[in-house]
């Protein structure tokens, strides 16, 4: 597979069903071609119109002139000892994004952690992506391209038993709700039967709390929602998740309630809580968290802080993490601890860092601070 380069042809990879129908109408073809071509692309992993044997030779030739199926280039692919697979992908401008596929312990689920942006502008204090600054939004093709690469690496999906990706979480690099216009079509493809056919409970968008966009999301698409809370009072959350200064905890939880009201089933919001040693891992924090979430139908996921150089934070001990879990349990919450997977290939979901080529000033300053520290 070749890396993405600029082209004037329409890239069909990122088109939702509506988008694909509009494309076929624009070239004077019938709408039903959309489903046919989508199946070739997303079920078969096909990127060559010539192979699409249920299309006429004339249409195949026409498509090759005006369109293309252009996925990200695979720069690195690795599998860790625990079965976690990781891809480093090269996208349009030579930036790299990382995608990881994490198998569940019992082997029934394989969750793909997908990135939405190169870097992130929100600068959460404990997040390595935030430290890199923001470079750019990924296109819809680059977002769904991550699923496409993972899918085709194990061969065509002809039946549900042969699904390398059973769940998707938008928990890689970037804030998905700040790239709404590209994330939504990509998520539609994840749900579409002509795309990846995943159920709405198996596609999760994680946000640090862009409140107006949570409302918009609920109006437009039905997926599961995860909230990166990490603190149960505004003072601490302002420090850890700076967007809290704009949309505070009350605003955020109200938006979660409105989101749930739009779901037609008994959905829960997932609350992500990264445990940071001596910052938010004490009994008072567990109590505040339990009190705060009393009214919200939710489940809590505990994520031990994933250390990276010069973060200034530490991971709590295993004992402290379990104590925190126990406090929550006594307060009525069963909160699983999300274990870090794929450590040996540096593939922790939510901390896809590393080799992003970033040219922003913030990143330069960060690098300089590291160098100063090292002196
Ligand atoms: N921007 C979105 C999605 C990407 S981050 C969001 O913030 O929700 C995915 C998850 O990983 C978030 O819950 C984030 O807070 C968490 N995370 C980021 N850096 C981390 C770190 N160093 N250790 C543990 N979790 C981290
Ligand atoms: Fe961005 Fe999410 Fe990292 Fe915050 S935690 S800086 S929103 S990627």
Summarize the model shown:
The protein is an alpha/beta fold and 375 residues long.
Describe this structure in words.
The chain has 375 residues and is α/β, with parallel strands linked by helices. The protein has helices spanning 17-26, 33-43, 57-66, 128-131, 140-152, 180-191, 211-220, 234-240, 249-262, 283-292, 318-330, 361-374; strands spanning 10-11, 67-68, 73-79, 85-90, 96-103, 110-113, 117-119, 134-137, 167-170, 203-207, 224-228, 269-275, 298-304. The strands form three sheets. A nine-stranded mixed sheet has the order 3-4-5-6-9-10-11-12-13. Strands 1-2 form a two-stranded parallel sheet. The protein contains twelve helices and 13 strands. The longest helix has 14 residues, at 249-262. Bound molecules: S-adenosyl-L-homocysteine and iron/sulfur cluster. Iron/sulfur cluster (SF4) binds next to helix 4.
What kind of sheet is the major sheet?
9 strands, mixed
Low-confidence stretches: 352-375
Describe the strand arrangement of the main beta sheet, using strand numbers: 3-4-5-6-9-10-11-12-13
Cα-atom radius of gyration: 21 Å
Percent helix range? 25-40%
Bulk shape = elongated
Strand content: 15-25%
The number of strands is 13
Structural class: alpha/beta
On the 0-100 scale, what is the average pLDDT?
88
Protein name: Dual-specificity RNA methyltransferase RlmN
Family: Belongs to the radical SAM superfamily. RlmN family.
Binding site for S-adenosyl-L-methionine: 174-175, 206, 228-230, 306
Domain Radical SAM core: 106-346
């Amino acid at each position: 597979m070749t890396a993405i380069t600029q082209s004037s042809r329409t890239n069909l990879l990122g088109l939702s069903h509506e988008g694909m129908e509009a494309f076929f109408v624009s070239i004077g073809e019938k709408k039903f071609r959309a489903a046919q071509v989508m199946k070739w692309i997303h079920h078969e992993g096909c990127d060559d119109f010539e192979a699409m044997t249920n299309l006429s030779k004339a249409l195949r030739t026409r498509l090759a002139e005006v369109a293309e199926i252009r996925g990200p280039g695979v720069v690195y692919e690795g599998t860790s000892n625990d079965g976690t697979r990781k891809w480093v992908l090269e996208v349009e401008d030579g930036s790299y994004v990382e995608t990881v596929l994490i198998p569940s312990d019992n082997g029934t689920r394989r969750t793909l952690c997908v990135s939405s942006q190169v870097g992130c502008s929100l600068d959460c204090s404990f997040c390595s992506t935030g430290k890199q600054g923001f470079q750019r939004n990924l296109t819809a093709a680059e977002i769904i391209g991550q699923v496409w690469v993972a899918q085709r690496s194990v061969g065509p999906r002809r039946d549900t038993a042969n699904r390398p990706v059973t769940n998707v979480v938008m928990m890689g690099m970037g804030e998905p709700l700040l790239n709404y216009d590209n994330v939504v079509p990509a998520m539609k493809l994840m749900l579409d039967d002509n795309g990846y056919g995943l159920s709405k409970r198996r596609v999760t968008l994680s946000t640090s709390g862009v409140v107006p966009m949570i409302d918009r999301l609920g109006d437009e698409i039905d997926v599961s929602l995860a909230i990166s809370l990490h603190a149960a009072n505004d003072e601490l959350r302002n420090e850890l998740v700076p967007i809290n200064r704009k949309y505070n905890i009350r605003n955020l939880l109200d938006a979660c309630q409105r989101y749930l009201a739009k779901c037609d089933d008994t959905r829960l919001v997932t609350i992500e809580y990264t445990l940071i040693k001596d910052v938010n891992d004490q009994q008072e924090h567990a109590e505040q968290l339990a009190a705060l979430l009393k009214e919200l139908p939710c489940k809590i996921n505990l994520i031990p802080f994933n250390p990276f150089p010069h973060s200034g934070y530490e991971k709590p001990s295993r004992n402290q993490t379990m104590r925190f879990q126990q406090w929550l349990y006594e307060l009525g919450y069963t909160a699983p601890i999300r274990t870090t997977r794929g450590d040996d290939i540096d593939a922790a979901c939510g901390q896809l860092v590393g080799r992003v080529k970033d040219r922003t000033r913030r990143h330069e300053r960060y690098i300089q601070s590291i160098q100063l520290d090292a002196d």
